Structures are given as structure tokens and as C-alpha cells.
Amino acid sequence: MKNIATMSRRGFIKLAGFTCGYAVLGFNMTREAVAATLEFIGLRQQSVYEADRKIYTIRKSQDNPMIKKLYAKDGFLHEGPCGHESHHLLHTHYSDRSESLKALKAKGVKLAL
Known about the structure:
The protein is 61% helix and 0% strand. By secondary structure, it is mostly helical. The radius of gyration is 31 Å and the shape is elongated. The relative contact order is 0.04. The model has no long low-confidence stretch (mean pLDDT 83). Pfam families: Fe_hyd_SSU.
């Protein structure tokens, strides 16, 4: 590309025309692509919600009869949702495994994540 100071008027006008045309067309094409993507996302959300509404009669976990039975006075977790036994059985614990991964990498094992 020529230096703008040594460019002829005709070359400058051509360059400016191409730049403006690309900016206008590029913007319109981008706007149309974003609109199409948002429309697709909206249709996908609508179909997922419609499928959930038709298939699943129980929409909330607290309305599930099995959960109600589990936490009932004579149920397995009778202490309630925040009791000691439910916390022990239903919650996970973090354990640092980075040293094991470093040892495997040092041995030359390739890990695909």
C-alpha cells in the first residue's frame, strides 16, 4: 500500500470508497447475523420451556413427592434439608489433585482435557 502522502487523488478516492462500502456492508451483515443468532436463541429457549412444560409435571424439587417423603418426620433425613445427615450425604468436599497431575505430566503422560 502506498504512503497516504504520496497517494494520488484518484487512489485516495478509491480507497475511501472501498473503506466506506466495506464499513456499511460489513455493519449490515454483522447486524443481520446477530439478529439471526438472537432469533435462533429465542426459538431454542421457547422450545426447551415448552418441552419442559409438556413432559415434566413436577417443576420444582421441593414439590417432588419422593423428596417430601425423604425429609418427612418418619423419613430417612428427618432432621430436614439443612440437618447434619443430609449435609454429610449430599454435599461434596474439595480435594487438591494438582500434585498428582504434575507427577503424571512429569512422567510424560499426555492429558486431554
